[in-house]
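Annotated sample (chain length 424).
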Amino acid sequence: MKTVQVAIVMCLNIGTDPPDVVKTPPYARDECWIDPLSLPPQKAIERIGQALQSQYERWQARARYKQCLDPTVEDIKKLCLGLRRNARDERVLFHYNGHGVPRPTQNGEIWVFNKDFTQYIPLSVYELQRWIGNPAIYVFDCSCASLLLPLFHSFMDHQDAMFKDQVERNNQAHQKDSDNGGGTGSSGNNNNSSSNNSNSNNNKRDSSNVDVDQATARIRDCIVLCATSATGTLPTNPDFPADIFTACLTTPIKIALRWFMKRNPLSTHHVSASMLDSIPGRVSGRKTPLGELNWVFTAITDTIAWNVLSRAQFQRLFRQDLLVASLFRNFLLADRIMRSVNCPPVSWPRLPPTCQHPLWDAWDLVAETCLSQLPGMIMASSPDGVHHKNKNVQSPGKILSSSVSWQHCIFFKQHCILASNIFS
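Output written by the structure step:
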């Protein structure tokens, strides 16, 4: 199974704050690393939506993406029904950014707009699940996001109960037909017919049990990632983007390095936040600095998950679907970063806290090694020997072709030596 359809729903209403939000300057503004107030509202939300799509495409390029910007209820209904129709039995991802609307309600409703942008309109996640169906994964980037989880549980319980009732009625009808289907005849023929019918019924019952188990698993194949607890509010620290949860899920290396810089100002005083966009290489190129960072990050988060999850849960979340695996690796980072700003994220299925896992120390060492070399590489790669804050003077691929030396990470070498010492 894989994620083949992705809905990106952005409810930002740029320039107008929702009534239950009070912002005290300075506060976080960036959405997908773009300042929405630096552009006209319509152009800004289009740029943000496209940026988020590009960020997702790094993890699953073959999925089909649909954007829904400042939508109405009908817009979302049409979008969701179309995604499920095209996805068939595969997984659908629904990403909701609710930074421009009120918080979810106690009744399990998120907010969208009317056609004239004069009212906020509630949308029940019960209806949302009915349109999207299963399997599905939901990302809710808004305050009080996990208020919605009880509605997901009740919907799955209701669907499960309805399905089992239908199966029971079908079994009763089939049994009644079997009882009435026996004809009259000789004793020998009746005995042979009874034996054949019994074997046939047993085979059908076994097949039916397998189908029921698969259908039940499908009904409960729903994953939810929430930015906050039921009472939590999104952090507004200006050192981080407003959509810090989305940043953790879709651009983990950049937000991890920025967070490390803020936590370790003495050792990273020579690095500016703008330099993080100039790390050379590609995420998919393991021999490049950026690719090497991503490689180490993947190994560390996979190992943490292997240590704390059951084998069945690890297999389901980290080995079946490429996009789901990437999101859950990055969710472990979100758990670490957002707990540090008193805003722990919540997921379904629940994951144990991993922010204190000792392997994060290994990641911090890798991050520090990278940041210590970054200014020298950028300076040497620039024609005038100066780092340009607003734009990169060379593309990441060209930076690698310069004569600048890069000290490769020794993370894997160290752990291979450690493993050999343990098992020798």
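Annotation: The first strand starts at residue 3 and ends at 10.
Annotation: The first helix runs from residue 41 to 57.
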